[in-house]
Design brief:
Blueprint (H helix, E strand, L loop, with lengths): L3 E3 L5 E3 L3 E2 L7 H11 L3 E3 L7 H11 L7 E6 L9 H12 L6 E4 L14 E2 L2 E2 L6 H11 L8 E4 L3 H10 L6 E5 L7 H10 L2 E5 L12 H4 L6 H10 L3 H11 L3 E2 L6 H8 L7 H8 L11 H4 L12
Parallel strand pairs: 3-4, 4-5, 5-6, 6-9, 9-10, 10-11, 11-12
Antiparallel strand pairs: 1-2, 7-8
The structure holds NADP nicotinamide-adenine-dinucleotide phosphate.
NADP nicotinamide-adenine-dinucleotide phosphate binds next to helix 10.
């Protein structure tokens, strides 16, 4: 049986979700393959340009809407509260859906209003003075429309989370953040648990994503001997152990793949590790953050979190 977790809304979220960032042209097939293999949770975002592909794949799969959990994310150019309802509608149209299960603020930074996804001046992102608290309040209002079942955030610092909880009325259902055995953030994980906020791990394979360039010097996280060794006991790979590490903590994980054999293998990362093995993995936390866009996005992110250089 596939593992699921309960959100603070009462809805169930599957532990393994299918990531759809990059390889946009391959995504319709990949998502269809994933749904056929048994994935019931799909993660997309306006900025990925994959919502149409996800929508097509869902339609082709024939799986009833209520059996799927679909997340999408509000991009930085649509943070103005007046823009939020239409941004959601645009995503719904591309996804060919009447509602999404989870709508997230993708990054806590607002860019110039308009349709340009990456507005730039002199090679720098054009930032607008729009408070993410106001953006979130606009998302709260969407809940009563039925077009969004739950709301949450991604890439927030601890201070940003605390402010959100203090100044808004709906506790985020989920926080999607970078986490893997080389960036464990145990205190932050514990904090979310204490507030009833579900944590979802993106880039669960650490530096396996080719855009995270450090791999030449430090090797691949999924080949870390501790993960590989533990895997031997369960007849699993290092990659599958990395997914199980997240799930054993009660978090969801979002592996991405366009390769059928890996799509299948990653679903089989849904199993539980023993306390002893969790302890062993505790020892390999390198506090390495691979996705920090602070230099390009016009804001310093993650300032109070592990892995900030
Ligand atoms: N909220 C955010 O800001 C944010 C940021 C980053 C990611 N995300 C979400 O999280 C998802 C996953 O993160 P990610 O795409 O950065 O990285 P990832 O899932 O950790 O890694 C993906 C890479 O690993 C390869 N791969 C997949 N399964 C493998 C396996 N079993 N063994 C070896 N290699 C494997 C894939 O190759 P192939 O595809 O070629 O098989 C791809 O190159 C994204 O797709 C997106 O939905 C969200």
């Amino acid at each position: 049986m596939a593992t699921t977790f309960k959100l603070n809304t009462g809805a169930e979220i599957p532990a393994v979700g299918f990531g759809t960032w990059q390889d946009a042209d391959a995504q319709e097939n990949a998502v269809l393959e994933a749904i056929k293999a048994g994935y019931r949770h799909i993660d997309t975002a306006r900025v990925y340009g994959t919502e149409k592909a996800v929508g097509q794949a869902i339609k082709k799969s024939g799986v009833p809407r209520e059996e799927l959990f679909v997340t999408t994310k509000l991009w930085n150019n649509k943070h103005h509260p007046d823009d939020v309802p239409q941004a959601l509608q645009d995503s719904l149209n591309d996804l060919q859906l009447d509602y999404i299960d989870l709508f997230l603020i993708h990054w806590p930074v607002a860019w110039k209003r308009g349709d340009e996804l990456f507005p730039k001046e002199n090679d720098k992102a054009v930032v607008e003075d729009i408070d993410y608290v106001d953006t979130y309040r606009a998302m709260e209002k969407l809940l009563s429309s039925g077009k969004v079942k739950a709301i949450g955030v991604s890439n927030f610092s601890k201070a940003e989370m605390e402010r959100l909880l203090k100044e808004t009325s709906v506790v985020p259902a989920a926080h999607q953040l970078e986490s893997h055995p080389w960036l464990q953030q145990p205190d932050f994980a514990e904090w979310h648990k204490s507030k009833g906020i579900h944590v979802t791990h993106y880039s669960p394979f650490g530096n396996q994503n080719e855009v995270y360039s450090k791999e030449g010097t430090i090797g691949k996280m999924i080949e870390d001997p501790v993960l590989v060794d533990i895997g031997k006991k369960y007849n699993k790979s290092g990659a599958q152990v990395a997914l199980a590490w997240g799930i054993t903590q009660g978090h969801s994980v979002l592996p991405k793949s366009k390769t059928p054999s890996r799509i299948q293998a990653n679903l089989e990362g849904d199993f539980k590790l023993s306390d002893e093995d969790m302890q062993k993995i505790r020892g390999i936390d390198r506090k390495l953050r691979f996705n920090d866009s602070s230099a390009d996005f016009g804001k310093d992110f993650f300032t109070d979190l592990d892995g900030k250089k």
